Amino acid sequence: MLLGLLLASAAVTAQVAPPDLSRQRPAVLEAFRVAEQGRFSVQDAARIADHPLRGWVEATALRRRMANARTAEVRVALRQFAGQPAADWLREAWLLELAKRRDWTTFRADYRPSASLELRCADLSARLATGATDAAWIADGRALWLTGRTLPASCDLPFRSLQSLGQLGDDLRWQRIDLAVAAGQTGLMRLLAADLPAAEAARVRDHAGFIDAPHARATRWPRDARSRKVAAEGLARLAKRSPDAAQAQLATLAPALGLDEAQRGKVLYQIALWTVASYLPGAATRLEAVPAASYDARLHEWRVREAMNRRDDAGALRALEAMPAAQRGDPRWQYFEARLRERLGQSDDAKALYRRAAMTATFHGFLAADRLGQPYALCPLEPSKDPALRQRVATHPGLVRALELHAVNQPALAAREWTALLGSLQAAERYIAIDHAQQADWHDRAVLTIGTAPEDLRHYRLRFPLHHENTLRRESRRHAIDPAWVAAQTRAESGFMPRARSSANALGLMQLLPGTAAMTAGRLGLPYRGAASLYDPDTNLALGVAHLRHELDRHGGAAYQAIAAYNAGPTPVARWNRDRPGFDPDFWIETVTYKETRDYVARVLAFSVIYDWHLDGSAVPVSERMLGRTVARSSRRAFLCPTPPELPSPP
Length: 651
Hints:
By secondary structure, the chain is mainly α. It has 39 helices and two strands.
């Protein structure tokens, strides 16, 4: 049945597809190459005259030589490609160049409203230089001024003019200082203090010093609202570094300055949070000290985890019962409330909670279904098969340009074009566009841009691509790892984008660090040709699955710990095992101290269920998979769509 559905979908996609521009691709690649070198000629333009990417190529060429560009030629391009993201991209660079030239008349003629702070400041300067300092100019300048962040240097001139006109008085300066206090921008506070009277400037500098490093002088501050605000901000920030130091200073400063309950609560919140986040001694006491009004979802969660960490089931249940109804109704907390009640002998209440959680296609919903021994809830949706709708999307100029930019390896430009495209599409059209992106091996479009509405999340085939399947299956067999798990890990790491690269320099499909790849290759005698080879899917999967197998062996076959180690490294996992020996896997995962790793493990295990649906139509129970076990076909979970479907999806 599943195979038939996929074949039918593929048949429709084959019938209605974007135009094939592959034959023209060499010419466009060459055009981009010479444009990026500043050598784009009339002859080069003629060779791609009718190509959808001509606007992007010409914008690239003009931006490359923007310092010498003539107004007439830029305006010709802006008119010719008006309405295309390429024109907007060109306009941004052109306006910055005009500001650099101080050609304010041309700037004003070509300016369009922008979210760029640099351009908004330049617009103020342009209006100032051309005499347009009317009430609207003053209002725009004052609105831009009121931010707690540092603004571009291009704002300095209009702000000085506003000040000379009496429109940036001390009241607005203090408002901005207050915003800087809330943002912790102590450098900006000191900068703004320079134009205040000496005594007030000294006070601001002392406040900035306190936020950076709280000091005892604060007990001698005036007992007023500003002192209290700064004290609360500084102590809350200190609590992130040293909860004990913040606790000690709060005891002195709260009565000295008269901090109210909300201000004390702000500090006590951070003291409790940064104590419990590492399960330090006294966490429960500090959580109890936080006023109820200062609690939020994050602290409610930590209150439950802190009791779990102490194996206090009754305390964890009380903390869970204190959650707001909406949070308590999340499948995660429905599941853990059921587990706690089950452990406390309240089996009927536990079963009712399991049934509610099991209605959702989430990690904890799947765990709940395992506790009940019932099928997994899954209600997949597919993009529309309407030929007219698919034809309209397939021929949409924005989609054609976005897919071709992806094909010629212009990821930044492709992302710009894609963002503009999605802004013009309805939901049904968006799913079809993502379907076309999948066909073009642009898999992260569904991962990053499908949306978060319940209907969006039910497009499992789009959200969970499966590529390089032969290699994935081969390496899974070689290392005796479930292929659905490997697919899930790959989806969580890179969204199946072979050239993915993280800020930590993890590369390729399974996001391997070059050092890890080299060690894995050396340990197993596998070929490895350096970091660049990790962009090759076969190499990356071979080394990534081998590394996963290594972590699985290192952690005694406990898959949930191997997944955690793949994300955080083996050292934290060893610490979590030391601190919570003998914990049930679900409680172990939930009490992991790193949010990223806690969510990552749950995500990979949930994704593995979806890939089982992809690959087999039935699933290894999550409660077995997280222990590293597979099961006989007769013990696999079937899938069933509840009526009505109410299915939050794996994150």
